[in-house]
Amino acid sequence: PIENLDGDEIRKHLHPDLGFSREDRRTNNRRTAYIAKLLNRNDIPVIVGMITPFRDSQEQARDIIEEEGEFVLIHVKCSVDTAEERDPKRLYEQAREGKIEKFTGINHPFQEPLDPEIVVDTDQQSIEEGVEHVMRQLEERGLLDENLNDEYSFPITRGEEQEITDHLTDLG
């Protein structure tokens, strides 16, 4: 099991009271890191997809999560121009027109992480190449379970394999 914490969903459902000031972003990131820590404590790996524009918040998340589990900072790098080209909601355009305040990269700063464990440069890599790069890096760090799909001719998870093994053992 892996839990995916989407930054927009977390903000919408758990932190709707927060704005986009530096302090509110720090609070949002701290709370989200704490949720990830609690899930890690219960052996649930977590993927958090959110904009964390300030280095102090990036390091704060690391400090919180590493109390209970592994922390891997993946910097998904993208130029502002490319992000704007890919923006289906036209948020960048609205920010340039002054309709959205404190929009990261336009009228609010973004500090690239100093030492991310993994960097995916979306200006240079396709989605498939980026995913492959991340998976390979996580595997090299020993953070992925062995891919059982390569071993069997049908898909099976490690948990399902254990259930079958336990059942067969019970049968004697």
What does this structure look like?
- The chain is mainly α and 172 residues long.
- It contains seven helices and four strands, in the order E-H-H-E-H-E-H-H-E-H-H.
- The strands form two sheets. It has a two-stranded parallel ribbon.
- It starts with a strand and ends with a helix.
- The mean pLDDT is 89.
Task: Record keyword descriptors for this entry.
47% helix; 172 residues; mainly alpha; globular; two-stranded parallel sheet
List the SSEs and their pairings:
Blueprint: E1 3-6, H1 7-14, H2 22-41, E2 46-49, H3 55-65, E3 74-77, H4 80-86, H5 91-96, E4 118-121, H6 127-140, H7 158-171
Parallel strand pairs: 1-2, 3-4
Summarize the structure.
47% of the residues lie in helices and 9% in strands.
